[in-house]
Task: inverse folding
């Protein structure tokens, strides 16, 4: 009895195992427009903006040869979404991924111009990241003014190159979304489409009475992926999250996204910022000319084991 009592006392006095602390992970998705080369010193301004945002992961669109310089300047690992062996400075390559964390396996697709990925080791957690771009056609600045019903708008959406691209890469979305119980998934980029979450009953009055389940985002939600920005900011009225606009016409849309799926990923913050090309953005106490026609979107996660 004395031995049992002693063992029990020792077990009570033994230190409890330390709880594994969650990792705070910041992900940025940004179309930098023609490699950030459309304004003077555009690459340098892209570097300044990314440095100020300070993301752990960048999912980039329209890299076009600028990737190595941006990655080297900021100390990131760099992955070009292209056939293995492609020169990293290849000016024809659209997508890329930057990471402060070490890379794991490549995730190549047959359509690297608009979808490709990389496994990244975030602490003890392997996460799959994809950079993504879909074609802008069909496009109308104010699609609700075409005189079409919601059903007719969806049929119109499905006549363009964007829908064709989605059909080609949809099997990859389905495959990796189905495996998130073991490996979480984050997809970010420029979908060139409004979101069905921004065209619901809350914004019906803004959209000529229409509720439109836009296919380009609805199919992703149907696979269980979550729109990070809308998870944090559910109301498209108070937080429209615009990432695309054009001067001299009404053309405001949220078309750049970060989606996630996985039980270990928990979004805690998200924000976006949109400027016109060359317009200054105020970051880190200075004005930086914006090198793109697309705004960026940022999602902050806790990665919990």
Result:
């Amino acid at each position: 009895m004395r031995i049992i009592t002693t063992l029990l006392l020792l077990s009570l006095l033994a230190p409890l195992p330390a709880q594994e602390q969650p990792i705070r992970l910041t992900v940025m998705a940004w179309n930098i427009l023609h490699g950030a080369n459309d304004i003077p010193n555009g690459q340098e301004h892209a570097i300044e903006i990314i440095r100020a945002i300070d993301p752990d992961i960048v999912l980039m669109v329209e890299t076009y040869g600028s990737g190595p310089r941006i990655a080297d300047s900021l100390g990131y690992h760099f992955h070009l979404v292209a056939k293995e062996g492609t020169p990293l400075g290849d000016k024809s390559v659209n997508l890329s991924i930057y990471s402060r964390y070490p890379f794991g396996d490549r995730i190549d697709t047959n359509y690297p111009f608009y979808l490709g990925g990389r496994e990244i080791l975030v602490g003890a957690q392997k996460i799959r990241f994809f950079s993504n771009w879909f074609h802008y056609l069909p496009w109308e600045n104010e699609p609700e003014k075409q005189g079409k019903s919601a059903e007719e708008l969806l049929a119109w959406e499905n006549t363009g190159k964007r829908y064709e691209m989605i059909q080609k890469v949809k099997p990859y979305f389905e495959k990796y979304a189905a495996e998130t119980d073991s490996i979480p998934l984050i997809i970010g980029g420029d979908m060139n489409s409004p979101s069905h979450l921004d065209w619901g009953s809350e914004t019906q009055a803004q959209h000529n009475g229409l509720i439109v389940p836009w296919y380009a985002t609805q199919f992703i939600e149907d696979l269980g992926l979550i729109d990070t920005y809308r998870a944090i900011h559910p109301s498209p009225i108070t937080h429209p999250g615009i990432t695309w606009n054009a001067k001299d016409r009404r053309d405001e849309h949220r078309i750049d996204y970060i989606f996630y799926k996985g039980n270990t990923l928990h979004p805690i913050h998200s924000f976006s910022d949109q400027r016109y090309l060359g317009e200054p953005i105020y970051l880190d106490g200075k004005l930086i000319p914006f090198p793109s026609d697309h705004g960026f979107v940022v999602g902050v996660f806790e990665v919990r084991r």
In short: Residues 22 and 268 are 12 Å apart (CA to CA). The chain has a mean pLDDT of 94. The two ends are 40 Å apart (CA to CA). The helical segments are 2-13, 42-53, 67-74, 150-157, 161-177, 215-222, 228-232.
